[in-house]
């Protein structure tokens, strides 16, 4: 087999993700970021061709990740997943990918997630109600309520279109969202959240833009605007967490459902996790949970 440069292979892989797999720009940028690090390491070690990369090279690269300042389990697993995907692509072109399949993600049983308690959730929503101008209060309350009702991802929210909402007079209303990977799913909305969105849409300017949530200039809100919006209200509510953003609201839904007795399989379906072990992160135990459990025991 003729020489195949690592940089050429990476560019081909990124093009494949864009044109064949049709992944989002955000996801492709994440792959590009990790593969740039991968390429840089092998350039520094004067290994430029795919066929010259050995298992020992991969071992050394992964060891460097572990020893780096950002050497968290999540960072290690993300980079490993990226490399495995890259080698699966190379396997389609006839390169040996067998040795890369020997590597497995590292389990992290001590992962701590940030989420809102029921008291904090009420405080957060009240802050949105009483610290906004009229139009933004209606819009932002719809956004926050949608996050806390369905646990959808920020990418799913910003791409939600008016035609994706099925309002019904009786029973649940529904939204149709596009999950990671491109699959479509339908999720029910509580009556309260559906009413808030309907109220917002009545005040929303009638413009060509069909995505539900728009900014001051009539263009659809981007993910970074949603991050800013969520953090702004959390700070105004005097809520401080290790990680503050829309994904924390997603965690809030997962934890809240579990505490209310909803099984993991249903939570997995609601949140759109492909793997149950992703959902199992919500199985952590808080001290107050232990206290409540002990209080249930009679002697």
Automatic annotation (TrEMBL):
A Pfam family per the record: Phage_integrase
Keywords: DNA integration, DNA recombination, DNA-binding
Domain Core-binding (CB): 4-91
Keyword DNA-binding part of the UniProt annotation: yes
GO molecular function: DNA binding
Biological process terms in GO annotation: DNA integration; DNA recombination
Residue span, Tyr recombinase domain: 111-295
PANTHER family per UniProt: INTEGRASE_RECOMBINASE PROTEIN MJ0367-RELATED, PHAGE INTEGRASE-RELATED
Similarity comment: family membership: Belongs to the 'phage' integrase family.
Protein name, UniProt field: Integrase
Source species of the chain: Candidatus Woesebacteria bacterium RIFCSPHIGHO2_01_FULL_40_22
């Amino acid at each position: 087999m003729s020489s195949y440069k690592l940089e050429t292979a990476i560019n081909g892989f990124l093009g494949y993700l864009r044109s064949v797999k049709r992944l989002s720009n955000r996801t492709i940028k994440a792959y590009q970021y990790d593969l740039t690090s991968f390429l840089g390491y092998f350039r520094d070690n004067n290994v430029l061709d795919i066929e010259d990369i050995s298992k020992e090279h991969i071992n050394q690269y992964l060891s460097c990740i572990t020893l780096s300042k950002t050497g968290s389990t999540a960072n290690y697993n993300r980079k490993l997943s990226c490399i495995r995907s890259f080698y699966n692509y190379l396997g389609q072109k006839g390169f040996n990918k067998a040795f890369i399949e020997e590597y497995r993600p590292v389990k992290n049983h001590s992962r701590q997630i940030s989420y809102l308690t029921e008291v904090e959730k009420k405080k957060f929503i009240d802050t949105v109600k009483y610290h906004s101008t009229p139009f933004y209060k209606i819009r932002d309350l719809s956004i926050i309520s949608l996050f806390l009702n369905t646990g959808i991802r920020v990418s799913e929210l910003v791409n939600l279109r008016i035609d994706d909402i099925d309002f019904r007079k009786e029973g649940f209303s529904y939204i149709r969202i596009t999950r990671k990977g491109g699959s479509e799913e339908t999720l029910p909305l509580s009556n309260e959240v559906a009413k808030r969105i309907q109220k917002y849409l009545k005040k929303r300017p009638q413009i060509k833009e069909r995505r539900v949530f728009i900014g001051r200039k009539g263009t659809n809100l981007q993910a970074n605007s949603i991050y800013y919006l969520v953090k702004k209200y959390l700070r105004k509510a005097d809520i401080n967490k290790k990680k503050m953003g829309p994904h924390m609201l997603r965690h809030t839904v997962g934890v809240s459902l579990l505490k209310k007795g909803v099984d993991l399989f249903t939570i997995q379906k609601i949140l759109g996790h492909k793997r149950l072990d992703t959902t199992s992160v919500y199985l952590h135990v808080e001290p107050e949970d232990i206290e409540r459990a002990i209080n249930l025991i009679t002697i």
